[in-house]
Amino acid sequence: MNKHLDALIEFLRIPSVSANPDHKEDVARAARWLEAKLSALGFQVEVVATPGHPIVYAERIVDPQAPTVLIYGHYDVQPPDPLELWHTPPFEPTLREGKLYARGASDDKGQIYAHIAAVEDLGPDLGVNVKFVIEGEEEISSAHLEPFVRSNAERLGADVLLISDGAMYAPGVPSLEYGLRGLVYMEVRLEGANRDLHSGVYGGAAPNPIHAAAWMIAKLKGEDGRILVPGFYDAVRELTEEERASLASLNFDAAAFASSIGAEALPGEPGWGALERTWVRPTLDVNGIWGGYQGEGSKTVIPAKAGFKFSMRLVPDQDPEAIQKAVTEYLQRIKPEGYRMEILYHGTGKPVVTELDSPYMRKAAQALEAAWGRKPVFTRSGGSIPIVANFQELLGIPVVLLGMGLNDDNLHSPNEKFDLVNYEKGIEASRNFLRLMSAP
Amino acid sequence: MNKHLDALIEFLRIPSVSANPDHKEDVARAARWLEAKLSALGFQVEVVATPGHPIVYAERIVDPQAPTVLIYGHYDVQPPDPLELWHTPPFEPTLREGKLYARGASDDKGQIYAHIAAVEDLGPDLGVNVKFVIEGEEEISSAHLEPFVRSNAERLGADVLLISDGAMYAPGVPSLEYGLRGLVYMEVRLEGANRDLHSGVYGGAAPNPIHAAAWMIAKLKGEDGRILVPGFYDAVRELTEEERASLASLNFDAAAFASSIGAEALPGEPGWGALERTWVRPTLDVNGIWGGYQGEGSKTVIPAKAGFKFSMRLVPDQDPEAIQKAVTEYLQRIKPEGYRMEILYHGTGKPVVTELDSPYMRKAAQALEAAWGRKPVFTRSGGSIPIVANFQELLGIPVVLLGMGLNDDNLHSPNEKFDLVNYEKGIEASRNFLRLMSAP
């Protein structure tokens, strides 16, 4: 175990922030680190260059007739900002009370490395072929993975795709996800005058793009939590009775959930509980906004420019392309007069629901039960792994989503962490699954 | 003239940005620079320490029986951001095509220095006592000037207060302002969860303070430009027939105004033209907004915090304290449930209308006519010099507002400038005014 912890710490020290061009070389270094690690385990490794960050593809074929497991993960991480809120630096992994703190610890370096560790533990005489696809652009919408999968569909051929990039339902409760939300990520940039203006001299006549942004955001999602883009909810699939029962059986505790994030309320779409709103209902959130003076004190300025980034989480059967088009048209319609608007597109991903009763799901459930001593629960996730839909479409194989993280892992926020027990059990579950796959 | 230009350039090199604590020593340096300059001209100078930036007070009493002119100005400047839009560095004054480019060139170092230059030109045998109050906190709401004026009312005694911190109606058109808008500047900080959250895992249930900010801003000012705070317009004084006639006589060209700022439209309060909306109607503008991810690309985050700064320009007889109270109550009412709110207060200033037909206004008109070869127009300004109301109240003397700048001087935005012809005519008009004041 110490060996696997040391390796993960080394991996986490590389600040492979894919969103920030200043970290381009660090991202490349993380790819080379994986290449060295997997080569040492007897894999054929290729670091595939893309117009963005490289994809690490590795395979170890022990017997062309043996079953093959394809494992997907990503080695890029979210930006660590705001830095001042980290208790220890994001790229100096630190152990505290059984948890490893570092950007990427849970999302997704810890989870992908758990499978590499399992492969290492089992040795080469496994009787299962293993393939890894580990990308460097998951946090920036995986733009170059889909073309790679498309043009390498045969090479990636496998019996099952195993992905660990999610969370367990609760601490100590092994979980298998069977649904993921899709994603549309867009950005609106607004311009009024051609320069910043004195708010006294011009106030009352000059266009103010901050107000335009606020009016538009208020028209994207109402204060009651309902998304106001026409047709947005049209394609949302109704829940089956089974799904309703499965959701109810989890006895979700909304008050504990609110308290776990320090929130006084859990606002959202009327008529649905917080669990439904994060798992089975679509949503829209502004992820960033800017304009004018942000420093200390006051500045009497009407800014020339303002903008905001926002994303929608989609559920079956919403089509990301159709939603993106509808939102674009709606933005053009609600943009107030007197403002120049630019719309940027930061990627889309399809929502996914996987088969609940495939033989692979059963093996995964068995592997988890053996590791944790209790049966797993079946969950959906509010998050998106857009590439899952692509894999399903292009490779036509079943997907097993075996999340090892926890919801309080602080993904995408300061003090991200990974519980060591989850790392250990994750490695054990992965070993169990690979062994079960090799059984006749 | 060269001597006065060199001196102003030296003054402008000092980055006396009052809003930024990093520039505290530079602000102090600008005060000492004025102290040295005025001492050399035979003034008794005191650099008065305050809890913020110092006030420079200077007086030269040639004869206790002679008329006294009190001149007010400020030596602090706006922050220069965004730096990348300056064609030449903000604190390296540069001459191009008859204009001097630098932060503070027009607002207010050029205008206050024009009076110092006039005093220097006229020499000590003027027959008029001159007093200067030059503060270092005008751009951050003049918090410490009012107590200074209050406790030094006798020492500041004068026949007239002369202020140059505004703009002429148009190039070549000398102007006397008789009205200024008041100001209330506030800030709202909102918090939802206690940390940034993954927008997939939590989207649909987590509070998002950016949306809360947008909803609140949309409720402060509607898309039709009307301010929605209850009672906001109640105390607004109707225009007199004379004022309407005077406004109409200026033949304001809204299309040229829009084109001068590169705006496609001049949105604002319904029922009023752009000139009225900037001069005689109150307004509200968000001056800055922030929250979430502002970098390149995308980050799927729901931020814990967001906020915005906003200011209102007031007209007679709106009372800043009453407006601030009404807005505070309104904010508490419109804040959506589930968010913690903090309200910050960045200062207030009363609106002012000065006497149009005082003997001092007549002398000022004469002084301007002699310098420019044409009669001045009487204007109002959308801007605020909050301290004018305090001076009026505490000293009980008439105020003359003799603006030397132009509306395209880029106050508070990149590439601020001061036309040399305005500097030269400003010095000449100041000399004329002081001479007229000394005449029996």
Keyword list:
four-stranded antiparallel beta sheet; Aminopeptidase; homodimer; Alpha-Beta Plaits; six-stranded mixed beta sheet; 22% strand; 2 domains; alpha+beta; 440 residues
Radius of gyration of chain A: 23 Å
Give the strand tally of chain A: 18
Which term fits the overall shape of chain A? Answer: globular
Major β-sheet of chain A, in short? 6 strands, mixed
Overall domain count of chain A: 2
CATH topology of the largest domain in chain A: Aminopeptidase
Strand order of the biggest β-sheet of chain A = 1-2-6-3-7-17
Figure out the total of helices of chain A.
Answer: 12
**CATH architecture name of the largest domain in chain A:** 3-Layer(aba) Sandwich
* Binned strand content of chain A: 15-25%
Which pair of chains forms the biggest interface, and how many residues does each contribute? A-B, 103 and 102 residues
Oligomer: homodimer
Summarize model confidence as the mean pLDDT of chain A. Answer: 95
CATH H-level superfamily title of the largest domain in chain A: Zn peptidases
| Secondary-structure element series of chain A | HHEEEEEHEHEEEEHHHHEEEHEEHEHEEH
Low-confidence blocks of residues of chain A: none
What is the helix fraction of residues of chain A, given as a range?
A: 25-40%
